Amino acid sequence: MKQKWMWHGIGAGLLSGILLGAFLWAVEEQSGRRVYTLLMNVDYIPVVNAVTYPAPVEFLFHLVVSVTLAVILLWLIRRMRMLGSRVIVWLVTVNTLVGVLIWPVTSLSGRTPAAADWVSLAWWLAGHALYGAVLGWLFRKEEEYGDEDYPLDNDRIRSSQ
């Protein structure tokens, strides 16, 4: 299958998205910080915000975003021919920045943490860094599989680590 890498991106996005959701849910359950609520929040999306969705549907929205982001990031990594631990560092950085960029939407809903809630922000960014680290680890695994559709060969991968 010529687009085998895309299936890997979809799987990695699902797993990473589930772990991010579980992490932020646990933080919210233990601390009362509404970081999981923020992850599930669609109050700021026109038309979509007109309906109140059940929790599984909100989580499905989150997974769609996670899978889409993972496939795009894997495509970029392949395009840049990024290898080894650089993948993890880059993805932790990119996804932490995504967390920073999303954070201001907290001001658009009364259900989410206040924009100046620095403890919630720290948990939020930790979750997004975790998401990036898991994606990076899973993407490095793709290199090790020697997928014929992956643009790099295994000898170059092993020598770069």
Automatic annotation (TrEMBL):
Keywords: Membrane, Transmembrane, Transmembrane helix. The chain crosses the membrane at residues 59-76, 88-106, 118-139. The keyword Membrane applies. This is Uncharacterized protein.
